[in-house]
Amino acid sequence: MAEEMNLNKTVVHVFKILDAINASESPQGVSELTRATQLPKTTVFRLLTTLEHLGIVDVNSIQQYKIGPKIFEYSKSASRQNSLVQVAKPYMKKYVEENHENINIGILYDNQVVYLDSEEGDHFNLQVNLFPVAPLYCSSMGKIFLSQFSEAELEHYLNKTDLKRRTINTLDTPEKLKQELDVVRKGKVSYDNEEYEYGLTCIAVPIIESGKIIAAASVSGPTSRLKVRGWDNIKQSIIEFGESINNTL
Which residue among 36, 42, 72, 186 is buried most deeply as judged by most CB within 10 Å? Predict the structure, then answer.
C-alpha cells in the first residue's frame, strides 16, 4: 500500500490508456477508452492529446487511437539492447575469468551512460559507485560516445552541461575535453584516469554495428591494481574484447 501511495497517478493513468489500446484489436475512441480505464473522459482526452503529440499514439480521421511509431522505436531499441547483452555475456564471463577485472557494457541515453550489464571481477570497494548511470565527460564510455558527436552536437552538450570537477583529474573545461576527444577519435580507446572518482580507473572501447557506435565496453578497477597488472595488458585485453563483440554483431 505504501508503494502505491508513492506512485505518480498521471503515469499510472497513461499506462492504463496504453494497456487498453494495446488490448484492443482495432483503434479505440475516447469513449471506449474511458469505459475500459474507468478514468474521467476529460483525463483520457487530455492524456491522449499529449501522447499523440509525442508520437506514442496515432489517431485516425474519426478520432480513434492506436499505438504510435514511438512505441515501436522503443520496442526495437529494447530488442537490440537485449540482443547485445545476450551476445556480449559469454565474452564478458570469459574476460573476467582471464583478467579478473570488472567488465561493463553501456549505452548512450539522454546524454548519460546507462549501464546495460556488468560482470564483476576481483572485489574492490568502489564498484558500487559505477551504476546505473555515469556522466559523459568524466567516464571512459562517455567519452567514447562524445567522440562520435558532430561539432554542433558537442557544442550543444557543452552549453547545457556543468563540467563539475569531481577530482583534480576531471576534464572540467570544454578545451580540455575537446583535446581529449581528439585523442579518443584517433586511438579508438578512451580513459577515465580517476576523473570520476579517486582510486578508480576505466578504459573503454566502442561497440560497433554497421559502422555505427551502438554501445561501449569498459574495464574498470582500482588504479593501483590495474597499474600492477600493466596498462598495456589491460588496454589490449579490452581492445580484443571489443573486437570479439564487433565481429559477432
Answer: 36
Cell numbers at residue 238, please? 579490452
CA distance 17 to 30: 10
Q: Which of 64, 122, 127 is nearest to 95 (CA)?
A: 122
Residue pLDDT, tens place only, 86-138 = 889 999 999 999 999 999 999 998 899 988 888 988 766 554 444 468 899 99
The three cell numbers locating residue 190:
578512451
Q: Which of 104, 122, 84 is nearest to 196 (CA)?
A: 104
Yes or no: is domain 81-248 CATH 1.10.580.10?
A: no
What residue has cell string 552538450?
157
CB 98 within 8 A of CB 66: no
Distance of CA 170 to the CA centre of its chain: 21
In terms of Cα–Cα distance, which of 200, 203, 214 is closest to 245?
Answer: 214
Architecture of domain 2-67: Orthogonal Bundle (1.10)
Task: Read off φ and ψ for residue 57, nearest 5 degrees.
Answer: -130, 160
